[in-house]
Specification:
Blueprint lengths: L3 H4 L59 E4 L5 E6 L5 E8 L12 H11 L7 H9 L6 E4 L4 E8 L3 H13 L5 H21 L1 H13 L16 H6 L2 H11 L5 E7 L3 H12 L23 E5 L5 E12 L5 H12 L5 H9 L5 E6 L6 E11 L3 H17 L4 H14 L7 H14 L5 H10 L3 H8 L7 E6 L1 H8 L5 E5 L5 E6 L3
Parallel strand pairs: 2-6, 7-11, 7-12
Antiparallel strand pairs: 1-2, 3-5, 3-6, 4-5, 8-10, 8-11, 9-10, 12-13
Length: 508
């Protein structure tokens, strides 16, 4: 379940506009007959607006050195020493996520949640939580498209004890029947609620299904989330089999960041994970999806809804592309917060949306998605679609101004420094390098590339996203269906009943 897609949108850059305005003084009351008074002085001139101060020089802040080691069984070890505070972040990363669900949507994410909630190492779920809390920490499990990550943060004094807990969760989970039943019930309720009440969920389900459409198969990235019926079909045996197949040493990396040394990590990992065995599973099939040959609109029906969600998406370059910095800048210019074109035009100037922006997904294999979005009132949804299409065309044909380029690249390059402030963030970035197959110096080169970008390179990177876009909308089909038909044929689907076909509207 890719819950991070909505959460996965671009960082917001604050833009403060200070305006001082002075009203004229009120008229003086009439004076008594024959009295003489001097005229009132004119109101003072409003103060002139000041130019913002020149930006300072950003610190170099290179990404910290990663010490590489490995156990004999193939477990990758990555250690980043940071001795400022006596803390350490431990993350075990398995290079398998929702892309490995195959014909069982929801399997990887449900299994990940069960690792956290189902007990481990002979401990009940309650005892496992108490063991972690005794160290002042909690067990976090996150599943995305390409990985499953188990994390704990502790004082460096408790490193070995935390490593033992991490090993229990990863290697010897209990996966109890009772916890599995409760987890299935919670997930089913969540998905039913989303299908019934979340326009963004419904539109995203359609967007990714069509972006990664394959003529004869299901693409590993085509599912934004599972559906309620998918969860009902899962069994505890499915979860156990998935865990056994994917939680193997040569499909995993142990990332440790903080007040520890590589030798200490090596000794601790050998003690906990040295007996871990298993062969890496075959990777899922990543056939490259084809762009649609003609424009079609996919409309998730939400009868009577006063609000609608609009997504416009395209597939383009791969994550490892040398144009990634230019594409990141293009996305920042387009929809990167309150200084982006979408916010300034679609929201502020034309008032077509109360929330709008764009994002670029990160996937380990194949093309990435550039997605424009607008949360809007249903009567304005058609105009919002038109506006997003206009900006999508413009970003690939018109280079950004120098001011836009400077703002975007400086934000992306300089804000990255803040991601190096915590051991948790550094651990996450280090894990992402491994999952995406990127070199240790990637982030430093990325920031350097940003600072050297020219406007033409930005529009050239965005031009890769100029095929026929996928348009996914969630809203009242009775109102929107006939209107959206001006962009192409409209297919209306029912999100509460497995996105079954309700009706269609031909192109006007």
């Amino acid at each position: 379940m890719n819950r991070s897609f909505l959460s996965s949108l671009s960082s917001v850059c604050a833009l403060a506009i200070c305006l001082s305005c002075q009203q004229p003084a009120p008229p003086v009351a009439p004076s008594a007959a024959g009295a003489s008074h001097p005229s009132a002085p004119p109101p003072p001139e409003p103060p002139a607006l000041l130019e913002p101060p020149a930006p300072g020089v950003a610190p170099a802040a290179p990404f910290p050195t990663i010490a590489h080691q490995a156990l004999q069984n193939g477990l990758d070890l990555r250690v980043v020493e940071r001795h400022v505070h006596a803390i350490a972040q431990l993350t075990l990363v398995v290079r398998s996520g929702t892309a490995t669900d195959g014909e069982k949507p929801g399997l990887a994410a449900v299994t990940g949640d069960l690792l956290k909630d189902g007990g481990a190492g002979g401990l009940s779920p309650k005892k496992l939580v108490e063991r972690a809390e005794a160290l002042g920490t909690s067990i976090e499990v996150r599943t995305d498209r390409d990985s499953t990550r188990i994390s704990l943060g502790v004082t460096s004094e408790d490193f070995e004890a935390a490593l033992e807990i991490l090993g229990m969760v990863a290697l010897t989970p209990t996966l109890l029947d009772a916890e599995f039943a409760k987890l299935k019930a919670r997930e089913t309720d969540r998905l039913r609620s989303a299908a019934r009440g979340s326009a963004s969920w419904a539109a995203a389900m359609l967007l990714y299904r069509e972006l990664y459409d394959l003529p004869t198969a299901v693409h590993p990235y085509s599912r934004y989330d599972a559906e309620p019926g998918d969860i009902a079909k899962l069994t505890l045996a499915d979860c156990r089999a998935w865990h056994k197949a994917h939680f193997v040493p040569n499909n995993a990396s142990l990332v440790v960041v903080g007040d520890v040394t590589p030798d200490r990590v090596q000794r601790g990992a050998a003690k906990v994970f040295g007996g871990w065995k298993g062969e890496a599973p075959p990777p899922p099939s990543f056939t490259r999806p084809l762009a649609p040959s003609s424009r079609q609109i996919y409309l998730a029906d939400r009868p009577g809804s006063a609000q609608s969600q609009v997504f416009v998406g395209l597939l383009g370059v791969e994550r490892k592309s040398p144009e990634w910095a230019a594409l990141s800048a293009a996305n920042q210019v387009l929809g990167g917060g309150v200084s982006g074109r979408l916010f300034l035009d679609v929201r502020e100037k034309r008032s077509l949306a109360y929330g709008t922006g764009s994002s670029v997904s990160e996937v380990a294999v194949g093309p990435t998605a550039l997605v424009l979005n607008a949360a809007t009132q249903t009567p304005k949804a058609t105009e919002a679609v038109r506006a997003l299409l206009e900006h999508l065309e413009k970003i690939g044909t018109s280079p950004p101004s120098q001011a836009e380029l400077d703002s975007a690249t400086r934000f992306l390059a300089d804000s990255f420094v803040f991601r190096l402030e915590t051991v948790g963030s550094v651990a996450d970035l280090t894990a992402s390098l491994w999952v995406n197959g990127l070199p240790d110096d990637y982030y430093d080169d990325y920031r350097k590339d940003l600072r050297e970008l020219e406007a033409g390179a930005v529009s050239a990177a965005a031009s890769h996203y100029r095929a026929t876009p996928v348009i996914a909308v969630a809203g009242d089909a009775a109102v929107l269906g006939p209107e959206l038909a001006e962009f192409g044929p409209v297919v209306v689907l029912d999100p509460e009943h497995g996105f079954s076909l309700k009706r269609s509207y031909p192109k006007k």
